[in-house]
Design a protein that fits this description.
The structure holds 2 protein chains of 2 kinds. Chain A is built from 16 helices and 20 strands. Chain A is α+β, with helices and mostly antiparallel strands. Chain B is mainly alpha-helical. The longest helix of chain B is centred in the last third of the chain and has 38 residues. The chains are: A alpha+beta, B mainly alpha.
């Protein structure tokens, strides 16, 4: 308690010290504003190309999407206040909120929505979410409050996909260049000042359709090192941060900050390239799966901070991690599979491992290597700088890959692109089958949530029984807040959407 | 004939060095796997269709042949246009103009700290060689050489925030003119860390130089004439030992610019080191190439300055 008092006193001294000159609005870390510590400056402010976490964190405050996800990752209305899917599933009619404006005051209507969707679909735009709209064949705007999407076939995952800031609604006349300099969205906050590589200051948007946020100001301050962010929180200058290193989270917790763990949609996995010998042999893949104790990987590589997982990580569709061949490690079974594949004498494989992209990769790889060795499989590790890793991963130039892949709330959005034979990441996945193609098509065409759940259980089973990959675990992210911060709800997709409902010190 | 002039020859050498740096940086950046497209999209880049990828490559200028990219960059740089960040659209010249002074200021502060600590420790050590005092001084010097800046920096930051509640670096960085007090507080810890690392080699060089000078005839003569120990140390011994110290300090300037990358990252100081680091992470070719060139230019100029400084402090060099 005394420590916090001292920290506040020091912060107060420093605040008075800095309010003397400059008058930068960042000093608008006024009593009840919130400063978020972020390890990196957003690499782009153009929402359609933003994949970096830090960029997404800022952009989701500034831009609106047609649908949104709630804390349980269920689809809820966004800029579209309701929608109707036709009987045959091929038409989605969305009714837009009226009275919504962009940050510059201009009105948002169906012309903006149509222009946005059409440009995202246009390959020349280079929008990363183009594939999410692959089933859309036409977008119409019959009146200012209505958008009609015509689909080539039913697509039950598209509504969840639309909640991504990569599908943000932009003014129809906005250019990428203009938006990089001056973001212009319909989100709960607007940009007030940006100092590159240092700070992004936001102000609440009083006209936000969901009601003005409670924070009088929100600043994303770039503090490159996670431990430096902890010390910034200890000294009272920063009130909110998201960490992914469990050690950093522990030290934050030890110093009186509130830390919440949230299991993530993203998952750690050993990818197997089942198109290449010897991994085209099911017995070889099953041997690998049986030889690995996933809890051990989690314990040794990630201090046990996380949960063992099956393929689907989204809470609503979560796979049972025990529903698979060899739910417990079984070295004898692994050896039997190996012998059945004609490799009784052992087998040598190679794995690509990224260094630096995330903290646990190399530890995971060496633990897997040790476990496989006991079953007679020698795993040679190719530890690569992250750029080199991504190059080889993208080209599917590997036998096995230790990977951390991003998850999505809807299982079709998450795995359709990997495990259907025409999926745009199928080359990297290295596995597809007519059975999976059929199941994914069925899942897309089914609107009833219960029926969809059963279909994706079968997808999970199909993936696990064929050991397409070896799913390991999901890790946590840690949301650290100073004690006076209330109202924030962390989400499994890492979104900071609920900053709009957050307040500091009961403001 | 004219090239024989030592100063002109130095300038030509400097120019050649810069051209070499330009070629090296350009080639090395492109030899690193991954381009701007994969750097920004990561594994999502696998989902791009060929047309999407082509559109992005054209956007980043990656569709041009390498020699064309190099020459157009060099031509632009020659006219003072360092290019612009693809991400933010900001001109690299403006970014550098904001970041370089901060790093130079940090370097000068560290240099002062390093010199004061290093020379003082060396004088203490050298005044009584092989004594206990000398051993302590040498041990501290060894510690300065062996403790990495990231460790010292993180420890300093964590301890001061935890136990003193003091962490000026968590504030947004204050420009010198806007808020000099906060600005200096923000540079103090990083300068201490860099200065401590710098003090060690300075101390070792200075100690051996001082010992050597002490044994020279003119010092013995002065001592024989009855000059007191303090006056002897400051007026006779120290000036004689300055040349190796200045040489060492000039060389260490490169260390400062390199060390700035780590220290600026830990203390969130928006200097040139962080600009390069971010540029490399994001494969921002224009930012990295031009910034490294500016850093090289700074380094070359400092070395040039050091050379000229010899001529002032040591008459023997002037004759050469």
């Amino acid at each position: 308690m005394r420590r916090i008092g001292a920290a506040m006193a020091a912060a107060a001294v420093l605040l008075t010290a800095c309010s003397g000159g400059g008058g930068a609005p960042a000093g608008g870390a006024a009593p009840s504003g919130l400063v978020v510590g972020s390890t990196s400056d957003p690499d782009t402010l153009f929402p359609w190309k933003a994949t970096q976490f830090q960029a997404v964190h800022v952009l989701e405050q500034l831009y609106g999407t047609l649908t949104e996800l709630d804390a349980d990752l269920e689809v809820v209305p966004g800029l579209a206040e309701s929608w109707r899917v036709s009987e045959d599933g091929k038409t989605i009619t969305m009714t837009l909120r009226t009275g919504v404006t962009f940050a510059d005051g201009s009105a948002f209507d169906s012309a903006d929505a149509k222009a946005s969707l059409d440009r995202i679909r246009d390959e020349a735009t280079g929008a990363v979410a183009a594939a999410s709209l692959a089933s859309v064949t036409a977008v119409d705007a019959p009146d200012p409050a209505t958008v009609v999407l015509t689909l080539s076939g039913p697509d039950a995952g598209i509504l969840a996909a639309m909640a991504s800031v990569n599908l943000a609604m932009l003014p129809s006349d906005a250019t990428e260049q203009a938006l990089q300099a001056t973001p212009n969205g319909t989100g709960p906050f607007t940009l007030t000042q940006r100092t590159p590589n240092q700070s992004i200051a936001l102000a609440p948007n009083p006209a936000f359709w969901g009601g003005a946020p409670r924070l009088p100001s929100l600043e994303f301050r770039v503090i490159p090192d996670e431990t430096s962010i902890v010390s910034a929180m200890q000294s009272g200058n920063v009130g909110f941060a998201v960490f992914d290193d469990p050690l950093v989270a522990q030290s934050a917790e030890g110093s009186g900050l509130t830390v919440t763990d949230t299991p993530q949609l993203s998952y750690h996995v050993l990818q197997l390239n089942a198109r290449q010998a010897p991994l085209d042999n099911l017995d070889v893949r099953l041997a690998i799966q049986c030889a690995i104790d996933r809890q051990q990987v989690l314990d040794t590589a990630a201090l046990g901070e996380g949960e063992v997982t099956g393929p689907i990580t989204s809470p609503a569709y979560r796979s049972d991690p025990a529903a698979r061949p060899c739910p417990q490690r079984d070295v004898e079974a692994a050896k039997r599979h190996l012998a059945a594949a004609g490799h009784a004498g052992g087998l040598t494989l190679a794995a690509i491992v990224s260094q630096g992209e995330y903290a646990t990769s190399v530890n995971e790889a060496t633990n897997i290597q040790a476990q496989l060795a006991e079953a007679g499989i020698t795993l040679n590790l190719d530890v690569l700088e992250s750029g080199a890793y991504v190059d080889r991963w993208v080209a599917a130039d590997f036998q096995t890959a230790v990977a951390l892949n991003g998850g999505r709330p809807d299982p079709d959005g998450m795995y359709g692109r990997y495990f259907t034979s025409t999926g745009n990441l199928n080359k990297v996945a290295g596995y597809s089958s007519p059975a999976l193609d059929g199941l994914f098509a069925q899942g897309k065409a089914t609107a009833d949530p219960e029926a969809r759940k059963r279909i994706y259980e079968q997808v999970s089973a199909e993936l696990e029984n064929n050991a397409a990959w070896v799913w390991l675990f999901t890790s946590f992210t840690y949301t650290a807040t100073s004690p006076e911060v209330t109202g924030f709800r962390p989400m499994a997709n890492g979104s900071l959407k609920y900053l709009r409902e957050t307040s500091v010190g009961g403001s | 004939m004219i090239v024989r002039h030592p100063v002109v020859r130095r300038l030509l050498e400097a120019l050649a060095t810069l051209l070499g740096v330009a070629v090296l940086v350009f080639v090395m950046l492109r030899a690193i796997p991954g381009d701007q497209v994969t750097a920004s999209l990561g594994t999502e880049a696998a989902a791009l269709t060929p047309a999407q990828r082509a559109a992005l490559e054209a956007y980043y200028g990656l569709d041009q042949p390498l020699p064309v990219q190099f020459l157009s960059w060099l031509g632009a740089v020659a006219t003072g246009n360092l290019g612009a960040s693809q991400r933010s659209g900001e001109s690299v010249l403006r970014m550098t103009a904001a970041a370089l002074p901060i790093t130079l200021e940090l370097a000068v502060l560290s240099l002062v700290i390093g010199l004061v600590l290093g020379v003082a420790a060396a004088m203490l050590s050298a005044s009584r060689p092989n004594s206990a005092r000398d051993a302590v001084g040498q041990a501290v010097g060894l510690a300065g050489l062996s403790v990495p800046a990231f460790l010292l920096g993180s420890a300093l930051l964590a301890l001061s925030a935890r136990f003193l509640g003091y962490n000026p670096n968590a504030e947004q960085f204050a420009p010198l003119i806007a808020d000099p007090a906060l600005h200096l507080q923000q540079l103090l810890m990083p300068a201490l860390v860099l200065g401590f690392g710098l003090a060690a080699p300075i101390m070792r060089t200075a100690r051996s130089a001082l010992l050597e000078v002490r044994s020279q005839d003119y010092v013995r003569t002065a001592r024989g004439k009855g000059v007191g120990p303090r006056r002897l140390a400051l007026r006779h011994v120290l000036p004689g030992a300055l040349v190796p110290i200045v040489t060492m300090t000039g060389l260490q300037f490169g260390y400062l610019l390199g060390g700035a990358v780590v220290v600026e990252q830990i203390f969130s100081v928006p200097g040139i080191g962080r600009q390069v680091l971010l540029g490399i992470q994001q494969k921002e070719y224009a930012v990295v190439q031009s910034t490294v060139l500016v850093v090289a230019l700074t380094f070359v100029l400092v070395n040039l300055g050091t050379d000229l400084l010899y001529r002032v402090i040591d008459p023997r060099v002037r004759a050469a």
